[in-house]
Known about the structure:
Elements: H1 21-34, H2 37-51, H3 58-81, H4 83-86, H5 93-99, H6 134-141, H7 150-157, H8 164-176, H9 183-202, H10 221-243, H11 253-283
Amino acid sequence: MDYDNLALIRAFENGLDNKSSEAGFVLIHVEMVKHSHGLVSGVQKGLKALRDLDSPDRLSVFQEGLQEILEAFKKINKVMNDMWQKSKPEAYSGFRTFIFGIHSQPMFPDGVIYEGVSVEPMKFRGESGANDSMIPLVDNFMCIDMPENPLTQILKDFRNYRPDGHKGYLQWVETVAKGTDDYPSIREFRGRHWNFTREYILKQGKRLHPKATGGSPIVEWLPNQLSQILNIMSEVQEHIIRTYSEESLKGGDAAEFLRIKDTVPKDLAKLQKEVKTYSSNLASQ
Length: 285
């Protein structure tokens, strides 16, 4: 399966034209999921190593698992970056309206009554990448705890829209995982997702709708998760610096570690500035 042999079976903006921005937006997500098996396989290896503490191979197995996760993320992030070519930011608003949900949307304050289904109003969240299980899987494996706030509650609510098998597996991983050190890949994924939101929605020069398609706050929600991973990376880096000598932090992977260490505080400061700017723009409408 690759991008060129994928096709939509329903569309809103330009029919089933596979060259449309709507098709690109959807099919890029599908191709990203194509590589998710590497995340599952890597997580399974990592958990096996954590379980078999008496095995002489446990460290190498654990490292193999981390490497497999890293390689899968490289492929996923590479495909994700193709979004810019396959789906144009200025075209997103043309079909975004049709993928909005009902839950937490001001246009449906009381929900919607579906005739013949229920006499009570129902509320469902809209189409959103937050329904996918890839990032929650690695979050759970790496024991990344989100801050306790209303934005995180929305993140948890998205769990209800996943297949039962996904929900059960994610919960199991969350229960047995002990933590790992492959944070940069998650930061890259979440950072690119925020970039999409900024370029496809917040910079389009139109009156901003306060909610995303899934019903989460359009400005604050993604930065809630991104800032948390940046804070965790900063804490881990400080621990490594306190634990290891300056001499040991030279050459090979250590050089990449030091590069990331210098980048994290800059990324966090930039993110906070962007959130402040776009929140102010939204409030002044």
